[in-house]
Amino acid sequence: MIWKITKDFTFPISTFIIFYFTLGGAFIFPLDAFLGFKGGAIGLHYVPIFDRLFVVDLDTDYFISCAYYVLFILVFQYTYLLFVKRYIRINNIDLDQEKSFPYEVVINPFLVLGVSFVCIFISAFIMRKEIYYAISHENSVYLITRANNNPYYTIHQLANEFCVVIPFIAYSFTIIKSNRYNIRVSENKATFFILFSACIISSLYISFLGNRREILSGIVICILISLNHFKNINRLRLGYIFLVVLALFVGSNFFRSRIIPWKLNSVFHLQQKGHMNDKLIEGEVVTKMGSKPETSIDAKGSIGSLLFSNELFYAHFSMYGIVHKKIPLTYGSSYLYLATSVIPRSIYPNRPKDIYKYYAESVNAAPGQIYTVHHAAACYLNFGLPGLIFGGLSLGAFFIFAFFINFYSFKKNSTFLILLKYLISFLICGQLVTFITAGPEAYKSMILEGILIPIILLWLCSQKNIVEEKSH
Question: Taking Cα atoms as reference points, which of 155, 98, 100, 105 lies closest to residue 127?
Answer without folding.
Answer: 155
